[in-house]
Amino acid sequence: MSAQALSAFLLQQMRKQGLSNIDVAKRAKISRQTWYNLLNADIKEVRLSTIISIAEVLGVLPLQLLDVYFEGRVSGSVMG
Fold it and tell me: 6-26: string of b/e by CB count within 10 Å (b at 16+)?
């Protein structure tokens, strides 16, 4: 699992959308601390509802976020 890869992906998508950290947290209806924990790759667990909310705000599919976190094993198992 790669929390660092997820962090990098989230930052990239956030910048692509022109959003600030506060924007993402507010729109996803999560605490700023939760958002910063994700960005700092300081996560042990995260709710699926949080992943869905963040994906919606960033304009990506929740499956994309999971795929990044699980280093491509999600789409491989779904597709194959």
Answer: bbebbeebbeeeebeeeebbe
- Tens digit of pLDDT at every position of the chain (80 positions): 588 999 999 999 999 999 999 999 999 999 999 999 999 999 888 889 999 999 999 999 999 999 998 876 665 555 44
Instruction: Give CA–CA dist 75/61, Å, rounded.
Output: 12
Domains, the chain, ranges and CATH?
3-74 (1.10.260.40)
| pTM attached to this predicted model | 0.84
